């Protein structure tokens, strides 16, 4: 066991996050793009949005979820490439194989992000920092891509750390330093706060975790609902969530924020049809079984950021079902709509077997 291991009394968790993943793959595959501002996303002429952009493009103020139109206004030389999700998934699957060499406890967060619990791993003299270094080196050598890593004894801190020295770097916070480290972290970095809650915090003069320490648990519940209870622990760096290896998909959804708010039923129905195609494509590209649907839902966000969702029992994924659900719940458009989403929930295995029993 190395000298460093004594810094670890609790769990050892590594959070790996690829650096501008989609854009980096495209640049790797076409070296002429190197040293140019590159983004991946939809076309500016078709009201597309960026999914990722490289660091050079970020210097112009570009970021993910920005409309491609705005991106070309901010940086007229930006090269916007179409999304090739099948290619990115292939690369992602190969990279996840590297993680498996260090631990079986891997929780995929997204296509380019994962938690690895290496508490029991004997590699690198049981030193998680060295493991993270090796993983990143391996990704660079084998795939020509860079990753950032965060290392700590819980998921929250590991995730914040992977962002700390981005790109192509890593950062570690030991157990004994967590409470000290989290104090000055921006509330923006705390998962679940989101944009709307962050605005709320700002109005109350709370920008960093320590600014919130005077609030009691019940104060936070009053401010943020049941999430306030979780938040009370998170701002103190307390996070007991396990690294979950067997994440079962419970629902699938797609959504779109529109450049121009929708003001009439017909334009909403047009968008629902586009979103429906997107949903079907998502199911096909991710091999999602649509044979065990239990419910479909729609999500509507208005221009004042009020969000509503409506659902109905359904076993099939048909465009008419979504249109009906929308029509039943939205008779007239009282305020402009800035986002629409469609999705469905899947029967879990236990529920499936119950249905089987009933059908026998
Ligand atoms: Mg990433």
Descriptive notes:
The protein is of the alpha+beta class. The chain folds into three domains: 7-183, Alpha-Beta Plaits, CATH 3.30.70; 187-234, DNA polymerase, domain 1 (Orthogonal Bundle); 251-359, Dna Ligase, domain 1. Helix content is 38%, strand content 21%. It is built from 13 helices and twelve strands. Strands 5-6-1-7-8 form a five-stranded mixed β-sheet. Strands 9-12-10-11 form a four-stranded antiparallel β-sheet. β2 (38-41) and β3 form a beta hairpin. α11 (265-285) runs antiparallel to α12 (319-329). The longest helix has 21 residues, at 265-285. Mean pLDDT is 90; it is low at 350-360. The structure holds magnesium ion.
List the SSEs and their pairings:
Blueprint: E1 13-18, H1 21-29, E2 38-41, E3 50-53, H2 55-58, H3 68-74, E4 79-81, H4 85-100, E5 106-110, E6 113-117, H5 128-143, E7 147-152, H6 155-164, E8 170-172, H7 178-183, H8 194-203, H9 217-224, H10 227-234, E9 251-262, H11 265-285, E10 293-302, E11 307-313, H12 319-329, E12 337-346, H13 349-359
Parallel strand pairs: 2-4, 7-8
Antiparallel strand pairs: 1-6, 1-7, 2-3, 5-6, 9-12, 10-11, 10-12
Residues 17-18, 21, 112-113 line the site of magnesium ion.
Summarize the model shown.
With 360 residues, this protein is of the alpha+beta class.
